[in-house]
Amino acid sequence: MHLEQRVLVTGGAGFLGSFLCERLLERGADVLCIDNFFTGAKRNVAHLLDNKAFELMRHDVTFPLYVEVDRIFNLACPASPIHYQHDPVQTTKTSVHGAINMLGLAKRLRARILQASTSEVYGDPHIHPQQEDYWGHVNPIGSRACYDEGKRCAETLFFDYHRQHRLEIKVARIFNTFGPRMHPNDGRVVSNFIVQALKGEPITIYGDGSQTRSFCYVDDLVDGLMRLMDSPAEVTGPINIGNPGEFTIRALAEEIITLTGSRSPIVQKPLPADDPKQRRPDITRARELLGWEPKVKLTEGLKKTIAYFDALLSEGA
Ligand code: NAD
Ligand code: UDP
């Protein structure tokens, strides 16, 4: 265990970042959370503000940052297609300039740095399940490219800083993750379906719903990120962090209807461009190198997430 370290979390007021800040504080770290609040919110970390070991700073990672820390988790980047396509140039800048700025900071401080990469680097994959040595199948000029290629370039930068400057890097390829504190309007499938089911509105399946995704509960994901950060220096990744349980989007809709007891009908909408047909992580590396695998089953995680959105909607959000 590495206690009482100063840890920087970029994007710390977002969905995953807020849970990560919480867990780091629990084990005795000093946490500096920076965020530009594009998709994150102060509300997500409001309960941490009284903690003397926690500091929240408004900052955009596309600009240089001068602070003193021992470790950096680089999570800043909108993650949902609606948000990352809203200003695609800013999305690429966030991934690429953000990586350059945070790697520069890590280099000056000789700090260990972890990148929140994504299964999107595999694009619409030809290999199934996806292993880390698969190079991916990404459309470089499509509407998802600002995110996919931005994250791919960030991985390149991380490995070049590692080779060129001997920086200690960790690259996690995160697969679809869900849980409380997801943005209710961010358009991701789990939050969309739950909010629609609770409001009695039609559940919007894009395409015929036969496309698959693998859903990891946030607690498991954060545990994986922390284990990766703590792993020996030679473990650089990339490492898939996700839940290998694979479900069609239609099966997810049906499960959420059952768990909420909703009377919402299912409707079909057009499939967005370049929507990957299937996605499932091979987590052999994470099992072997980190002793990590997810523990929370989809139904159990959905119940907790439904309870969160139920409370949020009854507050009038
Ligand atoms: P999120 O949108 O809730 O969090 C991202 C945070 O980054 C937000 O708080 C946002 O305000 C902040 N941010 C965005 N641009 C910024 C900038 N230029 N400067 C500073 N802060 C900025 O998303 P999340 O689900 O918590 O994702 C966190 C990270 O994990 C992202 O890098 C994302 O790409 C990656 N990831 C998430 C998933 C998932 O399923 N949740 C899957 C793969 C990868
Ligand atoms: N999706 C859907 N209905 C929605 C939102 C998403 O059918 O209301 C589909 C989407 O087309 C994709 C899958 O659910 O096939 C996962 O979408 P999400 O945006 O959550 O993540 P990503 O596509 O980045 O994996």
Structure report:
- With 317 residues, the chain is an alpha/beta fold.
- The chain has a domain at 6-178 and 217-242 and 279-295: 3-Layer(aba) Sandwich (Rossmann fold).
- The chain has helices at residues 15-26, 81-86, 88-109, 145-165, 189-199, 218-230, 249-260, 284-290, 298-314; strands at 6-10, 30-35, 54-58, 71-74, 112-118, 169-174, 177-178, 203-206, 212-214, 216-217, 239-241, 246-248, 266-269.
- Strands 3-2-1-4-5-6-11 form a seven-stranded parallel beta sheet, with helices on both faces. A two-stranded parallel ribbon has the order 7-10. The chain has a two-stranded parallel ribbon with strand order 8-13.
- Helix 1 (15-26) links the parallel strand 1 (6-10) and strand 2 (30-35).
- The chain is globular, with a radius of gyration of 19 Å.
- The termini are far apart.
- The structure holds nicotinamide-adenine-dinucleotide (NAD) and uridine-5'-diphosphate.
- Uridine-5'-diphosphate binds next to helix 5 and strand 8.
Ranges where pLDDT stays below 50 over 5 or more residues in a row are: none
Total helices: the number is 9
Share of β-strand residues: 15-25%
Classified by CATH, the class of the domain at 6-178 and 217-242 and 279-295 is Alpha Beta
End-to-end distance: 39 Å
| Secondary-structure class | alpha/beta
Largest sheet: 7 strands, parallel
Mean pLDDT over the residues: 96
Give the distinct bound molecules.
nicotinamide-adenine-dinucleotide, uridine-5'-diphosphate
> Helix fraction?
25-40%
Radius of gyration: 19 Å
* Widest beta sheet: strand line-up: 3-2-1-4-5-6-11
CATH architecture of the domain at 6-178 and 217-242 and 279-295: 3-Layer(aba) Sandwich
Give the strand tally.
13
Q: State the order of secondary-structure elements, H for helix, E for strand.
A: EHEEEHHEHEEHEEEHEEHEHH
Shape: globular
CATH topology of the domain at 6-178 and 217-242 and 279-295: Rossmann fold
CATH-wise, what's the superfamily of the domain at 6-178 and 217-242 and 279-295? NAD(P)-binding Rossmann-like Domain
